[in-house]
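Support request, please re-run this one:
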Amino acid sequence: MSTKDYIEKDYYKALGVANDASQAEIKKVYRKLARNLHPDKNPGDPKAEARFKEVSEAYDVLSDPAKRKEYDEARSLFGTGGFGGFGGFGAGADQRRTNVNFNVSDMFGGGSSSGRLNDLFDGLFGANAGRTGGRAAGPTRGQDASADVTLGFEEAVRGVTMPLRLSGPATCKTCGGLGARPGTAPRRCPNCGGSGYVSRNQGAFGFSEPCVECRGSGQIIDDPCPDCHGAGATTQTRTINVRIPAGVRDGARVRVPGKGTPGTHGAPAGDLYVTVHVEPHKLLGRSGDDLTLTVPITFAEAALGTTLRVPTLDGSVALKIAPGTPSGRTLRVRGRGVNRRGHSGDLLVTVEVTVPTHLENQARETLQQFAATQTEDPRPEITAALGEG
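Re-run finished. Output below.
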């Protein structure tokens, strides 16, 4: 995506959130949209697919604090209406869009901020903005892509290799991304000398603009590839196997090198970033590398002690409840949690004493007899406070 597109697109509007929305709110809205718009849920619906790509692109920027800050700074600098309000370069301006040779750091006082602004001007107006001289137009690495997968709880804990179906631009198989018919090769543009830009002077200023002969690529293809027509990429549906590592958490992003959009002129492809969504387990929860479980027990079991069988992801284990265990106590079963990178977490079992809602007559009488034998005050501090009052 060009810097111009990067600024003109309203990612907040795409997700339907305010500009000051929190990261948690952005994540919540995106997950809801992604579930409803996912191609697997809307097969053959091009509008849903386009909208899914739009919200995925927006989330890729707004979910990353560094990218979001850069995006907000760029839109603050140029306004949210695109390029119409900057320097007369709007769609209605009569003059041509050219690159003026001046140094942006002179305007903004240098420092790291000016360096970022120079990079921004380079993307907006070409490689010559903010510096003199030209830049040879060579191979350009492909852009990164994003995708979403939903895993079951156990799949996320154990890890899984799963097929992922992608539809989008991919390196042309016929020409290998060069854009030229097999057996031929692009040649350097004679008009710009391969730089992709031509320069001219007007008064005290020097101007450079994309070469019209090669359209700024620096290369001319005399015999284009019959399949991609010189673009070097075609729209393809491909299936790749993605390895999701064991212990992955909900919301984690897994990088798959070289599986993004293809580069130009034979340059390497970008990377694919897969966002993982984990479905909850019906019994178990997770805290870091530990698994959590809540187990109800009776008053008798808590008072007298007992041994229970509790479930884990690898069968069941025996759990000893000591006599006098209070409600809410958490017991640890070592090594029965998430195994990640050679380290295993534990299973944390919290016991909760249940109170019967209905008692038979005999049970009621027995409990009353038991209560009558109790001499220990379970609320000594409260009793003392009431006595002082």
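The two ends are 74 Å apart (CA to CA). Residues 80-136 have pLDDT under 50 and may be disordered.
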